[in-house]
Amino acid sequence: xxxxxxxxxxxxxxxxxxxxxxxxxxxxxxxxxxxxxxxxxxxxxxxxxxxxxxxxxxxxxxxxxxxxxxxxxxxxxxxxxxxxxxxxxxxxxxxxxxxxxxxxxxxxxxxxxxx
Length: 115
Known about the structure:
mainly alpha; two-stranded antiparallel sheet; 5 helices; about 40% helix; globular
């Protein structure tokens, strides 16, 4: 199985560990089996994203939203769909979608606490 890591850095030898939710990213890192981001980079003629700009920030947002929505759904005992709606309608998301705020640097726990 091929997995992809949503990062700007290559991870040649990942270490698999149990995550700790109290940390932004736990002791490991997130992966996906979806090659969507890789396909998007290739379609733009770029296989790495060397800099986050307003034009490519949208590539990171679905991952951030899904992590925050999962925490919100669990803690508030609401559906995932409702949690996603709340995230997208929050003041935090309005800040997150602006590259100039640099909120995209924050991990899911910090973003969740800002809702």
